[in-house]
């Protein structure tokens, strides 16, 4: 039966996938298009999924060969080979760093592909978790062999790198490309993340103050007990934050007026999923396993690299390791800033810092407790002061809700000061104990 405008019922049915398929595109708020929940998720992308199954080797080409950064992949096996053939730990460490860099980027890619099928809410959680998978794997391996200071300093370095270097580069490139326009972002989300970061600073500061004022009830045990209790509280706070962000107050994170229209118009240019659901899961497992293997050789070579390069372990842990772990975030934040999507850039940089400080660090404390390792939140006075000042600087930069290239330049210069400070910093925790 035909309608007034001459379209048949079949033609109306064919319009449904076109309108609902936009819900699977990136850039729109997760809950913007969930009103059509009666339409199965598979319907909009059914024609895409058929195309994805044409070639069995397509996913290998897409994940391994297509990305230019994968030219660094052979350095991983080369580092393992050198580990067994030579004792040049400096080269082993350097080649391991190069080998892990594309793996970190491909982990982020596989997670984004999986988010097409899992939906926006689960996809957001997957992006947050696997975005920091490299740091978590390196930290757990280092914990297992008792390198607690490497864990503390590498996680601290990830926070500093995201907040100063990644965000600074995003602000700078976005400001240069869009000059003289002043770019803006949603202040409410930035203030929320700044509050969580200050809470993390509180959790890290008190054990350090307790240690250096020598006011523990039980010497050495009180700060460890406080760290474990505070870690549990921080995990509860982070879980509450996720619920608040994704379910309770999702309107707080909606795009500002005007950005919604631009986002909808740009969604037609967004790419469709390039690999299937099970291929994405398989690649996540393969990449995670390979990162785990390579992380072992990387951590084992840290001390040898420090000796051969005459470089402090603190500098390697705080500066070099996080730059590799944040490679994917760095590229993504700059790309979205150039596209004038600062809200996403901010979510990548500050959101990752929030997750590391409120989830990964307390998670490592709990895991260390289970392993019998005395992992605590006492990051020592120098590291704690560095984190505190960094959070304050970034919070002041975000309070106006605007950015420009000068703000980005200041953040990058602050990171250079931090890097120079750790280059001349001598870690004396063992001497104090």
TrEMBL record:
It comes from the Eukaryota. Residues 1-10 have a biased composition (Basic and acidic residues). GO terms for molecular function: calcium:proton antiporter activity. GO terms for biological process: intracellular calcium ion homeostasis. The chain crosses the membrane at residues 91-109, 121-143, 155-177, 189-213, 225-244, 280-299, 311-338, 344-369, 381-399, 405-424. Keywords: Antiport, Calcium, Calcium transport, Ion transport, Membrane, Transmembrane, Transmembrane helix, Transport, Vacuole. It is a multi-pass membrane protein. Residues 91-246, 281-422 form the Sodium/calcium exchanger membrane region domain. Gene3D superfamilies: NCX, central ion-binding region. It is found in: Vacuole membrane. One of its GO terms (cellular component) is plant-type vacuole membrane. It holds the Pfam family Na_Ca_ex. Residues 1-27 are annotated as: Disordered. PANTHER family: VACUOLAR CALCIUM ION TRANSPORTER. Vacuolar cation/proton exchanger (CAX). Translocates Ca(2+) and other metal ions into vacuoles using the proton gradient formed by H(+)-ATPase and H(+)-pyrophosphatase. Belongs to the Ca(2+):cation antiporter (CaCA) (TC 2.A.19) family. Cation/proton exchanger (CAX) subfamily. This is Vacuolar cation/proton exchanger. It comes from Chenopodium quinoa. The lineage of its organism: Eukaryota, Viridiplantae, Streptophyta, Embryophyta, Tracheophyta. The gene is LOC110682708.
